[in-house]
Amino acid sequence: MNLLSASRSLAVTAGLSLFLSVTHAQKPTTPLYKNAAAPVDKRVRDLLGRMTVEEKVGQLSTLLGWEMYQRQGNSVSASEKFKQAVQTQHIGMLWATLRADPWTQKTLTNGLNPVLAAEATNALQKYVIENTRLGIPMLLSEECPHGHMAIGATVFPTALGQGSTWNPALIKQMATSIAQEVRLQGAHDGYGPVLDLAREPRWSRVEETYGEDPVLNTRMGVAMVTGFQGSRIDSDINIISTLKHFAAYGVPEGGHNGGSVATGMRELYQVYLPPFRAAVKAGARSIMTAYNSIDGVPCTANPLLLKTVLRNQWGFQGFSVSDLGSISGLHSNHRTAANATEAAAQAINAGLDADLSGYGFGKSLLDAVKQGLVTQAVLDTAVSHVLRQKFQLGLFEKPYVSPEKAAANVRTAAHINLARRVAQESVVLLKNEKNLLPLSRQTKRIAVIGPNADNVYNQLGDYTAPQADGNVVTVLQGIKNKLGSQAEITYAKGCAIRDTTTANIAEAVNAAQQADVAVVVLGGSSARDFKTEYQSTGAATVKAGEGVVSDMESGEGFDRTSLDLLGKQLDLLKAIVQTGKPVVLVMIEGRPLNLNWPAVHVPAIVTAWYPGQEGGNAIADVLFGDYNPAGRLPISIPKSVGQLPVYYNYKVPARHDYVEMDTKPLYPFGYGLSYAQFAYSNLNATVTERADDVTVNVTVAVKNTGSRDGDEVVQLYVTDKVSSIVGPVKQLKAFERVPLKAGEQKTVTFVLHADDLKLFSPDQKWLVEKGDFSLMIGASSDDIRATKDVTVSRTIAVKP
């Protein structure tokens, strides 16, 4: 090759190299945060590094979702309000997008069925991914306490009924089905479980809880969390579980919803926090702060709760979120902040990550950052907690869902059957004089009477969506389904729950007189209606002496001064009893109501709480003996509000009687009858000590001595006989719902550890103190069948 040829060749090669270099430089590279194979923490850091302060603040805002879509016929799309919020506020989360109820003004006509719901969430995701600089998908949260609060979803019994099953495995199965219905419609986060202890029955939200006991609440809460979240949160059938309400929300002074609570730190640690701790240890990915304050510090701006306990002691890895409007409440309600900017700074500096409302953070948080009240490090920490969940959910890779799958897998026959089973197991038989129940299927004439006998919405509880005709089986319909045309079934409402102007007791009496047995269905209601006024938080606005009287006497905002049956319900019941016909009282209610008169004069009483869409079938199954009831009370039923608080595990010393009555509840915690009878024997216990733990193995034989198959709920209570702090008279530590055929005997085994025997010592350490413990096995907190003392020989330190 001559010199000229060589020069030309070199020039061509150099030009080609330059061309390839330029071409390679112009080829777009995939950002690390969009690389599904990269570790989540690296993706979070990469995305944070690309975000502006405004985009970061936007990711912490959770706006009201039902305003973010628009529906025209069977077409649904992102609303202009959503587009504006995305472009101006850079929002990252929505709440209750698919919710329908009188507060949201979403009905069966203008709301979303499962197919349209999936299309709506897809439209929202498509807009935010394609029309924002970084394409960060939305995280959509929904209300899920007893089913997805959306049109077309399955409605299960409310939490008080779930707690009455004493069956965590069943509740986990229920939660799994709820999660599937939510995720298939395009949402990712379910609000629930509610882990508040209900020790104030006048409080309006008792129905949302599992009852009064920390151990029962713990077991049920863990079941919900593991059912919601499953083994893979990035699947298309699992959702984040958001724990509510952190903390001690269920014991407000005077029963006032959201009011202050009077609890010491030891009570907080030993009683109110354990259910939350167990749920966090089970992997819960989100937690919601409560409206109340504790010892003068609002929960929404409480660093002890949000930093020291939640993150440092428990190792929580998820994100925290305010309850609706509770950040602004630091200024308007608690008055710990002079303005909205200070409120935002207080909350996020205390460890709160996200704002449910859209106005607690937003502009106020931006102002706080600009004024130096909030550092970039604090802001980045909160944003990283939210982004981590979006990555782990797989939203960057799979933001869309299939409307066809939603249509096929929401409210399936299997889920409806499961709703019936949960309702069956939740029914508590309180009284059965002379074995009136079960009723004979040969009964020819039955009168079904009362305001809750054939009222769809009174049966479902608060946080329930509108229901299409035929979706809900009432007690009247359930009895008709059971007996068909073989019996003459007459219905008379008799009266309303609260309204005293529309009663027709004479009609009900006439129906009872013509019947062989009267099934009277009374109680309460959490059924919202379109005439009720609502606060910005969604709680009802209740006015004493209001002109329009709905049935609603329970549900968020409906606190009570008494627990008496309202309206003319007791008059109705007395009139039916006076006919001399056998009477079965069925209570459908959201809180324990006064049963003093029925307990004396009515031969058979059951409570079903709010039993959900299959409640009528389940109650009929129990009344006619196709299902042997085994529900147990998760909350004590008092004789009088003057006894309150009346929970079973009060602190020593023992209480003395009043002038008017004794101190015992009418029906105690853990109580419930069966159509079978059970005997206990051979209680044994052994203690094994190790350096950092103690194991107590407890066994007891339980036999079904009756003629019917049935379940017994075996309950283990413990008393620390001498301790350095004042403890409860007894405390539930373990339980098991045991199926037993007629004549069958089983050995039930419980295993306790140091965590079950510990106390929070005077110097604020968790210890199992050496000494004697009394083990008590029984059928309720007040029906102990066998006792045995065991000894721990040395004090053992326990990790927080």
UniProtKB/TrEMBL annotation:
For molecular function, the Gene Ontology terms on record are: beta-glucosidase activity
- Residue span of the signal peptide, if any? 1-25
Q: Which GO terms describe its biological process?
A: glucan catabolic process
Every Fibronectin type III-like domain range: 712-781
Could you confirm whether the keyword Hydrolase appears in this record? yes
UniProt cross-references to Pfam families, sorted A to Z: Fn3-like (PF14310), Glyco_hydro_3 (PF00933), Glyco_hydro_3_C (PF01915)
Keyword Repeat set for record: no
Q: Which UniProt keywords apply?
A: Hydrolase, Signal
Q: Which family does the record claim for this protein?
A: Belongs to the glycosyl hydrolase 3 family.
Name this protein carries in UniProt: Beta-glucosidase
Organism of origin: Spirosoma rhododendri
